[in-house]
Amino acid sequence: MLKIQEIREIIKLIDQSSIHEFSYEQDGAKIKIKKESQDVETVVRNVMPNPSVEVQQPQAIQTQNTVIDNTSQEVNEIPKPDTSNLHKITSPMVGTFYSASSPEAGNYVEVGSKVSNDTVVCIVEAMKLFNEIEAEVKGEIVEILVQNGQLVEYGQPLFLVKPE
Questions:
Q1: Which of 17, 107, 133, 139 is the most buried (most CB within 10 A)?
Q2: Locate the Lipoyl-binding domain: which residues (predicted)?
């Protein structure tokens, strides 16, 4: 049976991660955590009665929402740079984006890196297969559009390259 402190630790770890839904079942105790936007909903059920364990059912935890009113302040928008002359390196498949070959290795490319047609810029993992993605253009990386470990879609832009 899970102790209250263990449940709190699980909630904290899930809240800090990118996981959106978590379920756990052991010895008749079930835990289900589901995050939706800024709210975290936690439901703890004790299926088998155990008088030595006190569990509050269901409990909801809501993270702090901060609203900033900018109506009285002048807002200067920074114009977005023109990207029409930049080449987009897109994901050829749905998968997980990795900027390096392993967690200990350095990134394949950084902003400012020079690339050629056959330069490997990242890996996209799909179904336990690691696919090296090449630049397919000669130029300079000007922007990396995704984070390491992020899920990417087919055709999603990954990098912006200034062609030479």
A1: 133
A2: 86-162
